[in-house]
Sequence to fold (213 residues):
Amino acid sequence: MSETERAALDPSRKPARGYGAGALLFSENEPCTEIFQVREGWALTSRLLADGRRQVIDIFLPGDVLGLFPHARATMPCAAEAVTPVSVWVFDHARLLTCLTASPRMSRHALSLFAGHNAALSEHLVNIGRRTAIERVAAFLLELFDRSQRAGLTDGPVCPCPLTQTDIGDALGLSNVHVSRTLTRLRQAGIARVANGTLHLLDRPRLHALYNS
Fold:
């Protein structure tokens, strides 16, 4: 991004904000007036059904953007909450869209962001709809590690994983019991271990073989 483009974004930028773990960044059906980019920490988006069941839609790591929708009058289709303490940059939605409209290069950045997000959602749909429990967990752990690596959060075969088993289950359409059994199976087989807020990829080729079976 050029200095001119950075300067163009300044009118849309608000002061950075911090949220404690479990705090809501925004609620479902809230007017879409702000866009967030994660500086530090982890967040997730989710939908809550009337009977209390939850579907985790996406996980957000440093650098990821939340709340970017095509027009400023939209309402949020989901809620966003901090998984860990989170620091975010905040942008005015309408002003940022105006900046994107004025800059072809920045518009291409936004289109690339939308395309990547749609590709990830397609993969998640296949994962939930057609894969077995162990295939779902394997795919999820591999994606989590690869995204952490791109964000510079890995240390060899280890990356942060502050998600609870409930978070993982709600992301994959699995019960806590299913998640616990699957993670135990992966750990006992020496393939992957999730413990104490970290993910250890002990045998990536075997984990990939499970996901790609």
The mean pLDDT is 88. The chain has two domains: 3-106, 131-212.
